[in-house]
Amino acid sequence: MGGGVQGRTAIVTGAGRGIGLAIARQLVERGANVMFADTDETALAAAMSDYDERDPHVRSFTGRMSERLATANLLSATLDAFDRVDILVNAHRLVKASDPLDTDPDVLEHLLRENMIAGLRMTQIVAKRMIRQAEEAPEAGSAGAVVNLSTLAAQHPVPTMLGYSIAYAAQEQATRGMALALAPHRIRVNGVRFGSVMSHELKESLRDKPELRDRIIEATPMGRIAPADELVETVMYLASDASRFVTGQIVTVDGGRSLADRVAVQTV
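The line above is the sequence of SDR family NAD(P)-dependent oxidoreductase; the predicted structure tokens follow.
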């Protein structure tokens, strides 16, 4: 693998809209072959309308990321189209509230399955392919990169979203564990924990609760909500050999929001 992402093959889950779509588009812009994957067929079709269906560098896949068969089929479709896989970005997520005092076990299991287990399974199956590729080219440098998107809720639990918070705390630990397991195979695994970034879900929340914008900006030391592109740049760094000695790290992109106790700041 070289210094950038040109000529490499990437799978991006959650690529039908929002941050996942922004990541997939930027990979295409930088010369990568990209498999856009999402559970939402309508959103994915809309995203793919920007590309010529004959473009040999872009493909799409619709399936439930939490199902074993879907992950296997996604990898197979990627190999059929591009013969290899070098980058995996797990951007698929499910944002859903849950009652901390009366959490329905089915809801908790669903959130864990969608936000942690799905990405872990995808990492496992893709890593096996990356290991095979590394064995075929033992002197080729880095053998692959995995980037998992996380959330501030993993570090700072949100009581009304207990299951979501738990799932991402587990996902971050899985990122570290897989980084240790895959390092001997020259595969890097890192995460990006974000907040105060304009995701699809945040747009939806602001549409319903416009007053939330001021609360987020007030809680963010840099005083703004960042566009998705600013998060994308961090993902590009972790996906490329610019970070070839970086693994097992959770990089926070939040304008300083996780650093400050806003009550303390206001009373000092």
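Note on the example: The radius of gyration is 18 Å. Residues 263-268 have pLDDT under 50 and may be disordered.
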